[in-house]
Amino acid sequence: MVDQRRFDNQRKAWLTAREASSFLGVDVRSLYAYVSRGLVRSAATTGTRARAYLRDDLERLRARQHARSGHGPVAAGALRWGEPVLDSGITEITGDDVRYRGRSLRELLDGNEPFERVATALWTGEWPTPDTTWDHGGRLAPSERSRRRPEETRGLQALNRLAHIALDRSTDVPRGESARARDLAAARDLVRAFALAPMHGHSRHAHLLARREPSIAGALAVALGGRANPRHRATLNAALVACADHELNVSTFAARVAASSGAGMHHAVTAALAAFSGPAHGGASLRVEALLREIASPARAPHVLRDRRDRGDAMPGFGHPLYPHGDPRASPLLAHAEAIAPAGTLRLHRAVIRAAAGLGLGTPNVDFALVSIADALGLSAGSAILIFAVGRTAGWIAHALEQREAGYMLRPRARFTGA
């Protein structure tokens, strides 16, 4: 019970329903919904039927709302022992753009910025010279040497293989170099190993051809069974750059949590891969592929999407909570796909986009765009998730390194809601 007489004499530890809803910027019905979900505690006030709402809970909820909507700093410090927001100098999401180390993603894609240069900037905080390249170096991992079934090199099976590659390389520690140089060398080696991972049933000669590709995009094109001509390299490079980082998504946060415990970079990437595999994250592209198979023909797109909407089914590939006006990564990637796709290849994709717009289902997001790129390149099903994973590895490594430098363990607190 809250004593209403004391309520007015305190530092507003408890707010009225009107004050609480105004504090959150929502109507009273939404406030009641938060209470019913256990997000805000309330108590009866003495001598009245009204209830009061705990300000601490309201502040915590508002911080979460601001974090989801991309607001600036909304907490005093990093996510340790209960703080809701983590400080980072790597990537900024503004609501209509993404900025890597202060540079707009749109500008990077328009300028055909090499993925290697973007990754290096994410890791070091400094943009290297335009002619920066990576040494090919490194050894063939066991998973690169073995002959595997094609189905093991795509989709979720492929993510398991990437995890094995990361763990296999975790013991490779170059000698005679500074810790920073070791980290960067290991990071370059891991990204290139991931790009080569899709090779299956290829001869050693084919492996060597892929390894001789001067760029990660070219190596990935060959490994996925595509062509490493300039236009295809440019398209894959754009996809890798667009996927390189996205602030504190679930897989990146998993990498940071692991790194905060003192785990090595390779183990942090392995943790990230586990989170990435979920259908609401990296696995979303597999759901987009399933949707396109279900629709099958352009004429069926409005009917299938309408039925899904009316049933309340999820609509993979459309909309993003951080981008109410459209995912800024999708449009440039779809433009790349259109530029290289053979005639007729993307007819179904266009029909689905039109139908979704007509039904008010939003605009394509990065998952839909990656599937369009994979189809335009003639790659097999399950390739989009690998393109995404290879690109995002740059961000996972960057955040693991940043968390290691921060020097504290991520350990949020739980609010007990049991009896």
Describe this structure in words.
The chain is mainly α and 419 residues long. The protein has two domains: 4-68, Multidrug-efflux Transporter Regulator, Chain: A, Domain 2 (Orthogonal Bundle); 84-419, Citrate Synthase, domain 1 (Orthogonal Bundle). 53% of the residues lie in helices and 4% in strands. The chain is built from 20 helices and six strands. The strands form two sheets. The chain has a three-stranded antiparallel beta sheet. A hairpin with a 6-residue loop joins strand 2 and strand 3. Helix 12 packs antiparallel against helix 17. The longest helix has 24 residues, at 383-406. It is globular, with a radius of gyration of 24 Å. The two termini are 19 Å apart. 41% of the residues are buried.
Question: TL;DR of this structure?
Answer:
This protein has 419 residues and is mainly α. It has two domains: 4-68, Multidrug-efflux Transporter Regulator, Chain: A, Domain 2, CATH 1.10.1660; 84-419, Orthogonal Bundle (Citrate Synthase, domain 1). It has 20 helices and six strands.
Helix-strand blueprint:
Blueprint: H1 4-7, E1 14-15, H2 17-24, H3 28-36, E2 42-44, E3 51-54, H4 55-68, E4 91-93, E5 98-100, E6 103-104, H5 105-110, H6 115-124, H7 142-145, H8 155-169, H9 179-196, H10 204-211, H11 216-223, H12 230-243, H13 250-260, H14 265-276, H15 284-295, H16 301-311, H17 330-340, H18 347-358, H19 366-376, H20 383-406
Antiparallel strand pairs: 1-3, 2-3, 4-5, 5-6
Helix pairs in contact: 6-20, 8-9, 8-14, 8-20, 9-11, 9-20, 10-11, 11-12, 12-17, 12-20, 13-14, 13-20, 14-20, 15-19, 17-19, 19-20
